[in-house]
Design brief:
Elements (H helix, E strand, L loop, with lengths): L1 H33 L3 E9 L2 H12 L4 H8 L9 E6 L5 H9 L11 E5 L2 E10 L1
Antiparallel strand pairs: 1-2, 1-4, 3-4
EC number: 5.2.1.8
InterPro entries: PIN4, PPIase_dom_sf, PPIase_PpiC
GO molecular function: DNA binding; peptidyl-prolyl cis-trans isomerase activity
Length: 130
């Protein structure tokens, strides 16, 4: 009889574990689909790591992101690094992964992310999400 009780207990425990796993999987899937589908993004693109580090130091010292972009970026410099509104799936995958994970912020107090892509070194900030 002891063996029967263990078998029943294990069966119930396993079944409960599977149910809990399915519920969690459903919640995670729901969260993924509810995330932002587009972002208003700016970046500073530098071919050389050293130049990216100089730009990063200026931002960390309190310089305006747009001003640093105009001085250092090798792409979109005239627009302060603005790429405008971009939808998920339209950017370089590595860039997109970092950009969509960032919190929104302003050019005067940016929350930044960094990534290296085939294009070079990027410093990224996001101004809006929808």
């Amino acid at each position: 009889m002891g063996k029967d009780k263990k078998a029943s207990g294990s069966g119930s425990g396993s079944k409960g574990g599977k149910d809990a796993g399915n519920k969690d999987a459903g919640k995670d899937a729901g969260k993924a689909s509810k995330g932002a589908q587009s972002i208003n993004v700016r970046h500073i693109l530098c071919e050389k790591h050293g130049k990216k580090e100089e730009a990063l130091a200026k931002i960390r010292d309190g310089a305006d992101f747009g001003a640093v972009a105009r001085e250092y970026s090798e792409d979109k410099a005239r627009t302060g690094g603005s790429l405008g509104w971009k939808q998920k799936g339209t950017l370089d995958p590595e860039f997109e992964k970092v950009a969509f994970a960032l919190e929104t912020s302003s050019t005067s107090s940016p929350k930044i992310g960094e990534v290296k892509t085939q294009f070079g070194y990027h410093i990224i900030m996001v101004e809006g999400k929808k």
